[in-house]
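Retro notes
What went well: the complex prediction finally ran end to end.
Inputs used:
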Amino acid sequence: MVLQLAIQQRFAAWLDRRIPRSGEITLNQRRIFIFPSRAGLVFLLLVLGLLLGGINYENNMLFSFAFLLLGVFLITILHTYSNLSGLTLRSTAARPTFAGDFADFELVLSRSGLRRYEGIRFAWADADPVTADLVKGTQKRISIFVPAPNRGVLKLGRLLVETYYPLGLIRAWTWLDFDAKCLVYPRPEISRAELQSVAEANDEGSYTQQHGSDDFAGFKDYVPGDSLKQVAWRNVAKGLPIMTKHYQSQADHQIWIDWEQFDGEDTETRLSRMCYLVLFAEQQAMEYGMRLPGLSFPPAIGTLHKLQTLQALALYGQKR
Amino acid sequence: MALVYQIPRNCLAALLVAQLAVLAPHLFRLPLWVSAVAIVCAMWRMLLYTGRGFYPSGVLKTLLVIISIVAIVREYGNLFSLEPIIALLITTFALKLIEMKSRRDVLVVIYLAYFVAATHFLFEQGIVDALYILVTAALVTGSLVALHETEERPALTHAFSAAAKLIAQAIPLTVIMFIVFPRIDPLWSVPGAESRAKTGPSDSMSPGDISNLAGSSDLAFRVSFDGNIPPADQLYWRGLVFSNFDGRRWSADSNKSAEMSWNQYVRSVSMDTTKLSDASNYTVTMEASRQPWLYAMPLARSNTKSVLQAGNATLRTIYPLDQRFQYQVNSWKEYVLEPELDDYRRSIELQLPKDFNPKTVELARKMRAESRSAEAYVQSVLGMFNREQFVYTIRPPKLGTHSVDEFLFSTRSGFCEHYASSFVFLMRAAGVPARVVVGYQGGELNPFENYLLVHEFDAHAWTEVWFQDRGWQRVDPTAAVAPERVESSINELLAEEIVENSALPFFNLRELPMLRWARLRWDSVNYSWTKWVLNYDTELQMQVLEEWLGQVNGWRIALFVLLSGGAVLLLVALSLLRQKVKHKLHVIDKCYLQHVRAVERLGVSRGQGEGADTLAARIGSQHPELADSAKRIAHLYNSIRYNTKPAQQAPSDLQRKLRNEVRQFIRLSAMQKRKVAAQSGDRFAATAS
């Protein structure tokens, strides 16, 4: 066990030196490993059988046939190698996902020449392997859906890129480290009691969604994520900086999503319920603030606010 | 979520094509029902392919396999010789096709296909066969490519062309390996092909046997001489010697005397070869006759491995020839074979069935009594054949019990075996030891490679008569009846008869000059193939390597393999890594670019990304004479390329029109250029004066 672990570590360290972490990698002889596949080894047995036939029957044509197949085997090494070499892979940032869902890791395959790439298999962590080709065009995007069971940061190890094309006799492969990460939010979990209290809070404040009927409170600097409906387009048209209009009523109706509210539950359940409330409030377009131990977000609304709060939930209690 | 594996449809289609190609040459060799099973399985798979039909259940599969094995054993009587093994292989191959579901199954079928394709070489090894199997290998490889294709809806031709490329690139490597791979002796004995029909003379001779061979234009063997080819009357290819006569059938002496006389033979030869000179050396390449006899001119000795020399100075192999066989022979024209004949041997060579052919026996005794010596007796019998009304024919009448009597005294027409048979009978009846020899006589010269072709129709029977001290001497009674037989080929001599008689309706066409040329040319190619490829053995290998490398040793061979193989792989690698698809121009664009070049010759260069209309306008402003033409071209080009106007004409019409316009423009612009040049020339002349 210990030895195995040591060997694995050694291999990982060697691999790190040989194929260092990178965002974009073009495959070349330094990075491609190549070896006969199991089917290839059986094929060699077939060649050996034919060779024995040639020897025992003293039949030069059987010899030739065996040599032809052996020649095909040798030539295939080059073909399989060239089916990976020169291919450029880039990993783009994965969009955050929720625990229990899949993280969509996107790879961009590109080629500089017009060499055909066929039957390339991508396997990453626990994801179902994806087989793709690059025959038309110079670029192709493929998605690899990796299960994200736990909240926090999903870090993927090395991506296995392999191909058996054209004959399946030879396997060419590489392990690429894209430093691929994905933020995983807690799995949203509905909480009846909390929804009730939120609904009550809204009723008391006679919340209304019709901004137009509210009192205009003033302009604020535009922050990415603010609703485009609130942008003062007339000012923008005059050449002024982008501002958003704010109304009195919005400020009046706020809810707080508070860690302390869920007293008695375990950490993950608390976070899951808070996550649900964030999504709910955002959907209902109400302003919400959030409190976590040692962290507080003042009430606000908009995509940016949502992302910040969700990220805080995702990373709560996680080591940096 | 386990996805059910789907065999790529292209792979299935390719596999069906490949399977058909693999099985085709075997179908004629296999029992009918195996072929039927193969075809039914292929059709079954076809149904599955089109989405109908069902996969066989486990019970059905087991049943089919058991039935097949039982049927094969019944058919062949055993399971462990070549034909039943191949029949089993092919049945498995066919049955596997219908149960194929997983990727592994497909691989098994494809690997089996390679194997079945290769087994064809156990039966045939000609050039055409080799080319056919090469194509088959490409088809099988194509199905392997199709199995690994992932492109959506790829063309079937893509897999095949990719495979063809692989095979083509592998051929140079094949040649290198073929040349240097050491040919080692068989590791264990293997079952050979048995079912093939035997050709050539068999181990006995009855009336009609040789004349049957006369209808066949198949090749028996080829001979290439080291020196000059001996004259036709010496070309007696001895194969079998028959001493045993049962009244109808001549056969080889089957008792122990063969071994005894083997020793005598060795003695006589070793005694004589030292004195003999003027041997002719030649190489015989026998076709696969499925018989063990080898043919050579007397007195023959061969140093080729696995050639045995029998007691009566004939050559043979241990096993029947399943494939072409090549052997070297030294023959001495002058020889003494068995100068002494002991009583036992004499009794064998004088053996006659009792109470047969009484009239002939009587005639023999009478004629012998009239002759002073055995030699004189031979002459008088030959003289009788020559003088009297004997006819040489390929269609002799059937003979009854006293065949020799009937032949000599009533029918008097026969083929060589009748003459040989009755001549030996006459000799033996008179107490002169004699025997029948069967083989071939003559041969056709192939002028392209200077070798002899001996065909089945050259099969011949003659005799040997034993004289005290001189041993066995050849006597050909047929030559007394029809001397031309020895001088020319049987099919020239009896052409009409053979054509009427023969199953080959085009037999006489063989001699048309054009066809004869083509036939001999093709045969010389085949002969080279046999000589250099099929019979490439250790000896030839050493010869070739020595010639190329100067000296054969491990280092040089390794270097040769590394350099030549490396060069091939390097070329392939370069072509793969540099592979760039050329940007193909559309016909219309090509045509338009011609126009642009013509414009540029006029000194008007096209701007980056300049449209056809603006360019036309600029041409018009600089060369008003070309304005209309340029405008028309721009209009046509735009309307084809961008379809600005819904064209009433077919696109091909417009294309043709554009081409014509461009051609005209080029002509006009050339004229324009000349005019401009002439004007400037005038101007130059004007300034000069």
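What we learned: The first strand of chain B starts at residue 204 and ends at 205.
What to try next: split runs per interface for comparison.
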